[in-house]
Specification:
This protein is an alpha+beta fold. It contains 13 helices and 14 strands. A hairpin with an 8-residue loop joins strand 3 and strand 4.
Length: 407
């Protein structure tokens, strides 16, 4: 084992206490796990990501991720502590700070709702830091290309961190030996992004696209996730009887599987439940609460495109002038919506109830979620939107410049 790229811990080899190692996720390409470092100068928990070099598929690159994390210094982007190279079998391991709370855990909590005292402040602080993280990459001409709720975490002091730069695209190209060059600005890989966070242009086999505009779209979906309804699985008996009734009547709504399989629970419904019952529900079903997705991705790319167009409108020369240039844009015809398009206010019932804050959030989200990539609000511009005028009051005290801003 040897040092691959040194990070903030310098060129030292660190080992983990084997009794503390706990796996977090695993796939044929990589393993992510946590453990405690055995070293007199660095005693603490870390997150490790080990990638087998023979299993990498483009655009994934652990070499690129290590280099980017070592060179990018930003309060909202995770830092590289160190990285090691193992000869047999060939692999690279990144040592990263362990983030205490996944953002998904915060958003999926029944307590993250408008009638909680700290909801407005939390939403502003987390939202601004998410935007700041993406802008921190864009400022260095790096596009993340996999922005999603699951790639953000929060430290105990409230600082939000963006991680997983494995498929990031860098305008300047690679700068260390062994880093593959398989994408050019004129021929980018379109199989990037995750599920409902994928931008609409990726669904029509583009060879050329703006990777920074992808991040802007995905960021809009992440922020919209703050305000979608909370849902949880139905009890087994209720689900069975509901499906039986639906099957018998033939009134099965294929347009929204969530309506069949889940109960949508607004914040007012949660609060109006009997206190003891609510406590029991939280203990029994707390892990199952989740936010309903703004867009639907479980029916493949065509289904995702249809769910986007159902909300934002079918592409026209006015809405998206360059749509016809995509290779697959003419393979399917999407019918115009038969009625008026739903508003973001209707789709996001957990937006702050007070004005003008509610309208300011809608303005921000609407800017990110534009079909035409050229017209999307970019993170740098978003940081100066009116919704964030009071952000200094809500940032963590330890955040750079936060104390000065409050004085």
């Amino acid at each position: 084992m040897s040092i691959f790229i040194p990070g903030s811990w310098g060129a030292q080899i660190f080992t983990l206490d084997p009794e503390t190692i706990y796996p977090l996720s695993e796939n044929p390409r990589s393993t992510v796990y946590t453990g405690r470092v055995l070293h007199e100068s660095h005693d603490g928990w870390v997150c490790c990501k080990t990638v087998s070099l023979g299993e990498e598929e483009s655009p994934h690159s652990i070499r690129k991720e290590a280099r980017l994390l070592a060179n990018v210094s930003h309060p909202n982007i995770i830092s590289l502590l160190t990285s090691t190279y193992t000869v047999s079998p060939p692999s690279i391991t990144l040592f990263l700070p362990l983030l205490e709370t996944p953002l998904s855990l915060i958003l999926d909590s029944p307590s993250f709702k408008p009638d909680e005292a700290d909801f407005i402040g939390q939403a502003l602080s987390i939202g601004w830091q998410c935007v700041s993280a993406v802008e921190g990459l864009h400022e260095r001409r790096i596009a993340h290309r996999d922005i999603k709720v699951e790639n953000f975490g929060r430290q105990p002091d409230g600082t939000v961190k963006l991680f997983d730069l494995g498929i990031a695209w860098e305008e300047s190209g690679p700068s260390i030996p062994g880093e593959r060059v398989e994408e050019s600005k004129e021929a980018l890989i379109s199989q990037v992004g995750s599920g409902e966070y994928r931008a609409p242009e990726l669904l029509f086999s583009p060879q050329k696209y703006d990777p920074f505009a992808l991040d802007a779209w995905s960021l809009g979906v992440v922020l919209a996730h703050f305000f979608t309804p909370l849902i949880r699985p139905r009890p087994l008996l209720s689900t069975t009887s509901s499906k039986s009734s639906s099957d018998a009547s033939g009134d099965d709504d294929d347009d929204d599987d969530d309506d069949m399989d889940y109960l949508s629970t607004s914040s007012s419904q949660i609060e109006s439940d009997d206190e003891d019952d609510a406590e029991d529900d939280d203990e029994e079903n707390g892990k199952n609460w989740r936010r309903k997705s703004l867009f639907v991705s479980d029916r493949g790319e065509i289904g995702l495109a249809a769910s986007i167009f159902r909300i934002l409108g079918t592409p026209t020369d006015e809405l998206w002038p360059d749509f016809h240039l995509f290779p697959d844009s003419s393979k399917l015809s999407f019918l115009p919506s038969p009625g008026p398009l739903p508003s973001l206010q209707e789709l996001l019932p957990n937006l702050p109830p007070i004005e003008p804050l509610r309208a300011e959030w809608i303005e921000l989200l609407g800017g990110f979620l534009r079909l035409d990539p050229i017209r999307r609000t970019m993170p740098r511009e978003a940081l100066s939107f009116k919704v964030f005028d009071s952000i200094a009051s809500f940032l963590p005290v330890s955040y750079p410049g936060a104390t000065l801003s409050r004085s």
